[in-house]
């Protein structure tokens, strides 16, 4: 593992078979895998950890049937339902994230397959402009399927990054969602890149996908040359198919996933976001040893995160630094 880490640092792109061997590491050898992954993340990212925040700017009644999502109209959940927030509300949340949480990237996230009206796009653009004028943060959106012209309109208003998860491997995607395709996800990522906007894209794990499919997704993200990869772990929500049918994956399994993604994606930012508190439990600090250099502070879309102060203290206790630079 250490030899392979040195080869990755030297520029090697590891193969599917090599990555699969890493993600299949046994429990007794997992600490060695984490140590090797740590060499890679320290080489490319140093000891700095980036903090991101999001706001659930429009909630519920989504037309799509993603198996894990509490906001899908296809599932019976207790998710809140409300229309797009005002630009003032979204801007206030962004300013709080920067001043009180130390975030350097803020994302506006909306429920639904896409932005349905011109007015919604105008409100989001006005919010991005306000964030650009009053903070130093990266301005990100997660709005579902978007065209290149829509992305260019938002870029003109101040957008710097698109968040658009592939969610899972292409071979598993139809088991996760049937109302839109994997190809549609890829098309939005390519549209963002064509518009000159950087892309944050990752997935959610614990949906019943195989280890091979977790590696498949990692290599797909590498081929798309995204700059940041968020790893989310299923936090089962009552009323969703995924919450009903899939038992939680173990902390050791989560750490092997993070480490393998660091080997496959050595130069990318790798974040551990939704579900980390529950999935990793007392082993949560090890996500940074395993290769993560980003995390999300504050609340998620429909679940609460731990206090930002607790995250900041965890990072300091590990001898790491909160990265105040905007990338």
UniProtKB/TrEMBL annotation:
UniProt-listed CDD domains: Radical_SAM
Positions of the Radical SAM core domain: 44-276
Tagged with keyword Transferase: yes
SMART domains given in the database record: BATS, Elp3
Binding site for [4Fe-4S] cluster: 62, 66, 69
Pfam families: BATS (PF06968), Radical_SAM (PF04055)
Pathway the protein contributes to: Cofactor biosynthesis; biotin biosynthesis; biotin from 7,8-diaminononanoate: step 2/2
Record text on cofactor binding: Binds 1 [2Fe-2S] cluster. The cluster is coordinated with 3 cysteines and 1 arginine. Binds 1 [4Fe-4S] cluster. The cluster is coordinated with 3 cysteines and an exchangeable S-adenosyl-L-methionine.
Keyword tags: 2Fe-2S, 4Fe-4S, Biotin biosynthesis, Iron, Iron-sulfur, Metal-binding, S-adenosyl-L-methionine, Transferase
Family (UniProt): Belongs to the radical SAM superfamily. Biotin synthase family.
Self-association state and partner proteins as the record states: Homodimer.
Function summary: Catalyzes the conversion of dethiobiotin (DTB) to biotin by the insertion of a sulfur atom into dethiobiotin via a radical-based mechanism.
Family annotation (NCBIfam families): bioB
Name of the protein: Biotin synthase
Organism: candidate division WOR-1 bacterium RIFOXYB2_FULL_48_7
Lineage: Bacteria, Bacillati, Saganbacteria
Encoding gene per record: bioB
